[in-house]
Amino acid sequence: MSLTTATTLNRRKSVAQILANRGEALLVASLGNPTYDTSAAGDDPRNFYVWGAMGGTCMVGLGLALAQPDRQVLAFVGDGEMLMGIGSFATIAVKQPKNLKIIVIDNEHYGETGMQPAHSGRGVDIAGIASACGFPTAYTVSTQAELDKTAESICSRPGLECVVVKVMASVEPSSLPSRDGPYLRSRFREAVLGQGKGGHN
Amino acid sequence: MSKEWVTDVYGTIKAIGVRQVAYVPDAGHTQLIKLCDADPDIHSVSLTTEEEGVAMLGGAWLGGQKGMMLIQSSGVGNCINMLALIQECRMPFLTLVTMRGEWGEFNPWQCPMGQSTQAALESAGVFVVRADNEKEIPETVRAAALLAFNSNRAVAVLISQKVLGIKDFNK
Known about the structure:
The complex is a heterodimer.
Chain A: H1 11-19, E1 26-29, H2 33-40, E2 47-49, H3 57-67, E3 73-78, H4 79-84, H5 87-95, E4 100-106, E5 109-110, E6 116-117, H6 126-133, E7 137-141, H7 144-151, E8 161-166, H8 181-193
Parallel strand pairs in A: 1-2, 1-3, 3-4, 4-8, 7-8
Antiparallel strand pairs in A: 5-6
Chain B: H1 4-16, E1 18-23, H2 30-37, E2 43-46, H3 50-62, E3 66-72, H4 83-88, E4 93-98, H5 111-123, E5 127-131, H6 137-151, E6 154-159, H7 161-164
């Protein structure tokens, strides 16, 4: 599967590299490959996988970032997911949470449904849209050297960012974390808020 | 000066501990939006489309904060697939929906969504309660909020177009 953008980055390795320095960061991941990539890097109660509700993962990240201003929040999303919720760039940029990083794993295709081409490979610049909406920092990485530079501190540095990681349209081995909603939300809340807080404050 | 039901509702959501309010502006919510925007203890977030608010309030609750969404009936259809997050994870969700398309409506384009608002919400697993006059609103909102946050359910309060009155387009 060819990409418009030349890249040799592998999605699994790129996500694992970013999460190698995770620290205390909280993580939300969109349906499909970002959920598989983040769980393959190491399932964790502080991971919340959004198995449906396409287009909403960045906004889950915003609500979480506002509720937990002292924790870094990483939203891993696919390019198709980001395009579906593209208006959320405007909403998030207006709110400017300092602790939210949107990491778009962009293979320029809808990987889950048969690798149909996405707008992101046909001239639509996702980082450019984030920038135009008012993200103070928004850029695309497509080489290992560029990824190394951003991955080192993205889990801890302050400031709202959108990082688009151009990756190859590869098909990776299955990595299927739990898709049971009550379990995922309860273990996440217990990890963030404390034991016994899974279902109620 | 806000209407009495608005200050009552604002008092209720403060007492319940709502910290995030997402909205798509509507004339019927003007005063409540102003109160929330001015409140330093509330994250008041204007949305580009209603489904953003559903996802945002899911994230708020994951992080330990209660939230509420203020929208017009025309935006309910936008929320349906996003409500999968709330329904499937059994999260609390509270929305106040001002109705259009039902009481002396001038704009016929408001009628289709207005007519299907309640059925659409219920088909997506949302409890729906109605307030048909100003007096009913505060207690209805309070009960809806308690149901949402104590029983982890999605609840919508539909505020009748009677409360807002017939919109005059010939001004």
